[in-house]
Amino acid sequence: MLKKLSKTSRRDYITYGIVIAFYLIVQLFKVTGLLSSHMEGLLVPLTYYSLAAVSLNLTVGILGELSLGHAGFMCIGAFSASLFSVYTKGLLPGGLRFFIALLIGTILAAIFGFLIGIPVLRLKGDYLAIVTLAFGEIIKNILAAVYFGYDEAGLHISFKSFQLQGEGKMLINGAMGIQGTPTDSNFTIAVILLLLALVIIQHLIGSRDGRAIMSIRDNRIAAESVGINITKYKMLAFTISAAIAGSAGVLFSHNTSTLTATSTYFGYNVSIMILVYVVLGGIGNIRGSIIATTILYALPELLRGLNTYRMLIYSIVLIAIMLFNWAPKAIEWRKKNLSSIKGRFAK
Amino acid sequence: MKKLHRVLSVATACALAMSMLAGCGAAKTTSSNTFKIGGIGPTSGAAAIYGSDVRDAIQIAVDEINEKGGINGYQIEYKFEDDEHNAEKSVNAYNTLKDWGMQMLVGCVTSAPCIAVSEKTHDDGMFQLTPSGTAVNCVQYDNAFRLCFSDPNQGKASAQYIAGNAELKGSTIAIIYDSSTEYSTGIHDSFVAEAGSLGLNIAVDSSFTVDSATDFSVQLQSAKDAGADLIFLPIYYQEASLILTQANTMGYDPTFFGVDGMDGILEVENFDVSLAEGVYLLTPFSATAEDELTVNFVNKFKEKTGHVPNQFGADAYDAVYAIKAVAELKNVTPSMAVSEMGATMAAGMTEVTLDNVLTSPTTITWTADGEPNKDPRAVIIQGGVYVLAE
Fold first, then answer.
1. What span, in angstroms and rounded, lies between the C-alpha atoms of A241 and A68?
2. What is the distance between the alpha carbons of residues A132 and A145, in angstroms, rounded to a whole number?
3. Is there a single domain that holds both residue A245 and residue A326?
4. Which of B3, B9, B24 to mutate to test the interface with A (most CBs of A within 10 A)?
5. Distance between CA atoms of A78 and A250, rounded to whole angstroms?
6. Among candidate residues B186, B216, B212, the one with its CA nearest the CA of residue B204
7. Is the overall model pTM greater than 0.80, yes or no?
8. Which of A165, A195, B185, B299 is deepest in the core (most CB within 10 A)?
9. How does pLDDT run across A245-262, given as a tens digit for each residue?
10. Chain A contacts of B181, Cβ < 8 Å?
C-alpha cells in the first residue's frame, strides 16, 4: 500500500507509524509489568518536549524564522490552563475539564503568537528571535511576580501579596506559582496530541499554503514577485507554532502539581534546549525533531547509573550527534555506508 | 532477499528499543532483610552545595548506624539521586529510587522539587522526611515531615530574635529579598508581618529577581539613604556574598542578618571572608560547637569531603537518626509494605522525642502537620567561623 503513495505522504505515514509503534510498545511493556516507574515517569515529559520541538521546527525549519521564546508560549499555555483547572476543580468532571483547559491554553498561546507576529513578521531579518526572546522573559517574570486570587469581594490581582477576605483561594501566589493543579496529563492523551500536531503540521507542509510558506523561506523576493502575501503566511505558520507550543505547556502543567514561572522551566535556556532538539534532529525534519527529543531528553535519565559523569557524557553525546549530522566527512561516510540500508526502506 | 533484510532491520530496531526500556525495569526485587532509604537533592547545578552535603551527611549517618547493628537489627541500604533543583527531574529521580526498591525517603533538599515529589509519595503512601524543604506545602500531606523550620517560622523567629536582642532592637531595618523564589518571599512575608506586630522599624523593603541577581547597588543605595543600620537578607549565600561585597565598595557598613540560606557564605570562591565579619545568621547548626556529637560529625565529614558541613548536612544527619528512633519505637521491619511502613512511621513521628541532635540545642518533637518543634539558634561570624550569639 505504501508504494502507491507519493514520496511525501509515505514519509508522513512513516512518522505517524513510528509514534504509534512507540506507543504500542510502551503499552505492551506496561501491561506485562516490565515498564519501570522511572521510564513511565519520563513518557509524558518526552511527549510534551517533542510537541514543543515539532512546533519550533515549524517556525525554524519550514518558515525559516528563528524563535527563542517557545518556552514563553509554553508558559502561557501552562499558566492559563492550570488556572482554569484549579478554579474548576471539583466543579467539572476530569475529562471535560482537561479538554477545556487544553483549548484555553492552546488558544491563548495562539493569540499571543498572533499579537507578537503583527509587528515583527512584517520585518526582514532576525527580529523575531530578539522579540520572542524578550517576550519569553517578560511573560516569565510577570507570572513570577503576580498575585491573583478570589474571595467574597471578587477577583484580586496585584504585584504585592495581599490577604484574602473570608472564603476564597489564592490562584497564582507570586513566586510560589500555582499549587494543586490536577494531574490530568497522561501518556495516551499526550500521544494523541502529538499525532494531532503531526497531522496539522505535515498537512500544512504538503498543502498550497505550506508551499507558499516554504517559498518565503527559500527566496523572499521571488515569493513576493509571484504575489504571495508574505506577512499573512508568516503569521499563519507562526501562530500555529505558538498554539502547539501552548498545548505542550498545558501537558507540562498538568503533569506535576506545582507550577512556578522560574528559569528552570520557562527561561530562555529551555527555549534554547528545544532549539537544540530541533537542530540536532535536522532543521525542517519533523520526524527528526521527535527522535532527537526522545534521545536527548531520555539520555541523562538513562545515564543516572553513572552518577557524576552523566552530565559530561551528555555533552559529549551532543557534540557527537552534531558531528554525525553536519560534519562533511560524516555526511560522506553516511552516504557510502547507510545509503544501502536507506535504499531498502525506501522500496 | 530484500524483504528479509527489511524485516531483519525492523526487528533489530525493535529489539534495541525494547532492551532500552527493559534494561531499567529489571531491579524491582525487594529483599526483606535491609531497609532501603533513598535521598534526593541537587548534586549538580546552582544549588549543588546543598545536595552534595546532604548526600554525604546521610552516608555518614547510615554508616554509623550500620556499624552499630542497624535499625532493629536490620542494615540500611542507601542510594542518592540528583535532581538538579528541578521539580520535573526530581520526580524522575523519585521514580528511579522507587524502581530500586526505596522504602523511605530522606528528601528532597530544595522546596519546589520537594512539593512535586510529596505528591508522589502521598500517592504511594511512602514515608518522607525532608531535611531542608522549607516551603509550607512540602509537608502538606500526612506522610511528609520536615526537620528544618518552615519559611514562615524562619521569618517569624528572625523578627523575634531581632526584637529580643538589645543591640539590634532599635535599628532601622532594610530588607533585600528575592521575589522570584518562594523560599525568600515566604520568609520575607512572615518577617514583615511579625515585625509589624513587634514594632520593629522597617524603612526599606526592596526585592530583586533571579535574573537581576548580580547588581544590588540600587537596593543598597536606597537602604543607605534611608539610614538603615540592619539589613535583613532572607536569601541564599551566593547573592548575599555579592551584596556584602558591593556594600563594602560603597563604603556602607550596616549589620547583616541572614537565615539558613546564608549558611555556606564562608565557602564562596573568590569571596573576601573578612567582609562577613559580624554577620548574624539564624541557623540551627553551628559547626564550631564543642559538644561531642557535633565534633564527631564535623570531623567525619571533613575526612570524607575535605570541607566543613553546612546546616543542610546536619539536618540530613539528624533526619536519618529520626528515622532510626521512630522505626525502633514502632518496631518497623523491612518486610512491611511501603504504605504500611509509611503510615506506621507517620504515626510514630508525632510520638518520638529526638534528643542529642545537631540542629537543636535541646530536643526535637514533631506535630501531626509535619512541623518540627525546636529552638532556633543564632550564630555570628567572628574570625571566619560561626560563633553562637547570645
1. 12
2. 20
3. no
4. B24
5. 4
6. B216
7. yes
8. B185
9. 999 999 999 998 888 888
10. 175, 262
Q: Report the relative pairing of strands B353-355 and B201-208 from DSSP bridges.
A: unpaired
Residue A173 lies in a domain: yes
Q: Which residue has the cell 543516572?
A: A304
Per the CB < 8 Å rule, is A145 touching B209?
Answer: yes
User: Which residues does A332 contact at the CB level (< 8 Å), separation at least 6?
Assistant: none
CATH number at residue A59: 1.10.3470
What residues 201-230 of chain B have any CB closer than 8 A to a CB of chain A? Answer: 209-211
Question: A307 and A182 share a domain?
Answer: no
**A124 domain residue, yes or no:** yes
A163 and A308 assigned to the same domain? no
Domain annotation covers residue A321 = yes
Shared domain for A121 and A200, answered yes or no, is yes
The separation between CA A325 and the C-alpha centre of its own chain, rounded to angstroms, equals 22
User: Cβ of A121: how many Cβ atoms within 10 Å?
Assistant: 23
Q: Does A239 lie in the same domain as A172?
A: yes
pLDDT score for A100: 96
- In the block, cell 520575607 appears at B188
Count of the separate structural domains present in chain A: 2
Residue A309, domain extent: 303-347
Instruction: ipTM value, please give it.
Output: 0.83
Task: Express each pLDDT in B313-369 by its tens digit.
Answer: 999 999 999 999 999 999 999 999 999 999 999 999 999 999 888 888 888 999 988
Helix, strand, coil shares, percent, chain B, to 5 = 45, 20, 35
**Under an 8 A CB cutoff, do A175 and B182 touch?**
yes
Residue A285's CB: how many other CB atoms inside 10 A?
A: 16
User: Are residues A238 and A331 both part of a single domain?
Assistant: no
Shared domain check, A328 and A180: no
Contact between chains at A257 and B211 (C-beta distance less than 8 A):
no
Any idea which of A131-135, B32-36, B123-127 has the lowest mean pLDDT?
A: B32-36
Q: Judge if A277 and A311 occupy the same domain.
A: no
Substitution target in B1, B20, B83, B96 with the highest count of A β-carbons within 10 Å is B96
Distance of CA A291 to the CA centre of its chain: 14
The verdict on residue A295 lying in a domain is: no
